[in-house]
Amino acid sequence: MRVHHGFMVAACVWMGAACGGGQSTDGSADLVTRPMDGLIDRTVAPPPGDPRPFALPGVTETTLDNGLRVVVVERPSFPTIALRLTVRAGHDATDGRPEVAELTTRVLRDGADRSDAAAIARRLDVLGMRYTASTQPNRVVLAMDGLATSAREASALLANLARRPHLDPERIEARRDEYADELEVNAAQPSFHRQRLMRRVLFGDHVYGQTASPDAVRAVTADEVRAHHASTWGPNRATLYIVGAIDDDALDAILANFAGWDATTEPWAAPEPPVVTTCNEAHVVVRPDSAQTSVAWVGPSPTRDDDGWFDALVANQVVGGGPSARLFMHLREERSYTYGAYSRPMHYAGLSIITSTSDVRGDVTHEALDAFVEEWDRAHNETIPDNELTDARDYLSGILPIELERNGPLAGYVSDLVDSELGVAFLDGYRDAVAGVTAEGASAAASDLFGRDDLTLIMVGEREVAIPAAQAHASVVHVYDLDGALVETLDGALDSTCPTPFVR
After folding, report:
1. Range 59-259: architecture per CATH
2. Which of 108, 189, 374, 417 lies deepest, with the highest CB count within 10 Å?
3. pLDDT top residue among 361 and 111
């Protein structure tokens, strides 16, 4: 076989030491060895480095004559900009019809003034900007991210989308059909039914408990969309966030684009939050032939302005905050019941809840619930060890500057904090507050968050699997069909911790 000499030289250069030995006098290759000293032990995780410093850039705030609140975070070293326009036109502004708010927001993607959706898409592409619109329980967020050099033109486009969207019947009808079809596709997933039932159980008839359905979406009229926009989309209900490289001239141009927004709307008021109470009952949606069982344990949580919030944050990180937390390691890595298991807090105006979720194989539903309960008992009865406490605190403290390196995530954090009336000072004190959490504080918070008697079980799965498993882990089991109708109530194996019967 012929071997090209140049190829052999290149291979030896690439392989380094493997070709580095010379030939012995008897023609055999010398053995090339490497010393063991200094090799990395890959069985041991490397220690974390020193925490990266984090300081929130300067934040200034002003209010325009039309009532628009403007928050500016200057980052001159970043050649990008993030614009966030938040408007109090979310689910809570629809008298219990969240589909109206969602449909209105979707239409805001389709054009404004004299530009249709295609023209806006081309303009965004030329400007190097990305645009998204989302509806949340207490607000709508319009977001633009891209090059700082395009800030003037992008803000003019953003202002037009908010002030003068295309709300013609044809576009509304097209978006309405798309939205209804999307919900029907989502309804094929067990998690859709779990989330819908969870809201109903926790919040009842409150606006937070309402979930859009395909029929409800198809019933929305163009007049209702226009009326919702006219009554809620005003500068006095909005805040503009500008994060990134911005000079005075560009800022003046951006503010000028919004200064002419003169719509008159009623001021926004946060809805009176519902009282959230949970106990050891279970609620099960029967989903015939379901290969998986979708599981959620839910309960109230401290809000972010409570004294015990940071204790709860660290406790949640230990129990279910990520792929190294107890739930994930127990249900996935040790038992192979699921692809993942997590817990996380969810925030609404005036309240917070904790959810612990997993989609498990149907044939291990009972065993998966046992594994959850083992973790609830552990959280309730044990003090968090120093190594887990340190890992959780280090992660939460260390991930913050990484997440906020880009302007978009920073704009998201700042807008959430300001709109929630927590203020940006929350970020300034975040790392010190996390570092100050003690084992006693985090353990007490874990016991409160994950007490077995105080969590309500929500499940979606096959009847023969889900109901017996729920009965073994609850005092009473409420059974629903796929339309959400309560069809029967069964006794469970546990003594009840519920103060009153479920009536929602």
Report:
1. 2-Layer Sandwich (3.30)
2. 108
3. 361
